[in-house]
Known about the structure:
By secondary structure, this protein is of the alpha/beta class. It has two domains: 2-231, no CATH class; 234-420, no CATH class. 46% of the residues lie in helices and 26% in strands. It contains nine helices and 21 strands. The relative contact order is 0.09. Mean pLDDT is 80; it is low at 1-31, 224-240 and 421-430.
Amino acid sequence: MKNRRRTGLLLASAIVMAAVLIFGLVPPALAAEFRSGDTIEIREGEVIDDDLFISGNRIEVYGTIKGDLIISAVEAIFSGEVEGNLVILGQDLEANGVVKGSLYGLGYSLTLGPEAKVARNVYFAGFDLMTEDGSTIGRGLYVGGYQASLDGEIANDVSIGVAALGVSGSIGGDVVGTVGDPDSSFNVPVMPDFPGAVEVERPGLNVSDMAQIEGDVDVTYTEVDFDAPLPTPRNIIPSLISEFIVNRVGEFIALLIVGGLFLRIWPATMERAQQEVYRRPLNSAGWGCLITLIFFIGVPLAFMLVLLVAIIGGVFTFGQLFNDIMGLGSAVLTLISTSFLTIFSLVTKVVVGYLGGRMILKQLAPKMTPGYWTEFAGLALGVFLYEVVRAIPVLGWFFGIVVILVGLGAIYLALRTRELAEPVTSEEAA
């Protein structure tokens, strides 16, 4: 039952992550405008004739974007107009403008203000979603998280996967998904006291008398077998902090082990990969994004192909080859997937951390004797700093994605450079 409650969250998260990869980290061959800083404001009347990527601490957009708009910030306010899609990531997010495409949100809280007009769909994964009275969504709403309050107008269906759902607005289709059972014992999350923290609602479905739902309400109440009383900040925050620290320390040790092995066994590949990061970071990020998309699309297609071949082989051999083909094909795909995910989650961070640590170490101790342990010290310094930055809320998550994509592309370019290198003949050597 617990897994069923997460269906909406997984769906919304997958769609949002796909949007981040497709819209937010495109190869550099595509034209776009990039802006970054602590506080950024796109003023009313300003027109951007291209896609716009913005990252910072506080971002306010009141102008017009002719393409897609991608925002990554702690606080973000969108009150302008975007002719493409809006991807918005951060802690406190507010959309109160016109989006002629779809809206993809990922963060702690997202509010659609009374003047928000989204022509297509809205996808959100996070803790809290609120659509205020006057806001409109031209198609459907897909939400995964803890709580949602729907006071605006939604033209089509609502797919939900939350613990607490309140409906006071208009929904033109069905309401489907899972909601927490109000009669079961439930641990309501308690957020730390920070600016923008929302009030935590009790689990359950609350449909007010003012709500207008044209379709059916097909909601599954999920029983959550938690007998403990409501947690308080005194007992929940230390457990969250300790778990977070364990994860960071554990990954740091894993990166040291993997990086040390690579420096010992494949030092030339490590050298070429970190050079690619240093010389062509944007190109590496583009290749990393492309390879990631190819993998997550290609593996399911490859499995379907293996299944098709197994069925054909089984038909012609009266079932004799079906299990053999499926077993062999599944084993190969498992090996490929495991190898890729290891590179994706560990080796990419080792490459980028190795480069950063070496550069800093050369500045701090330029007279250190070259050797394996000197390189390992640079690696340790780099991955330690990576874990420090990774611990920063929101920024650390975004930084981790960038490091993975840049590192993955750099590894590919390093291996390709090695394969394209022509062997030197004896005459050329002479």
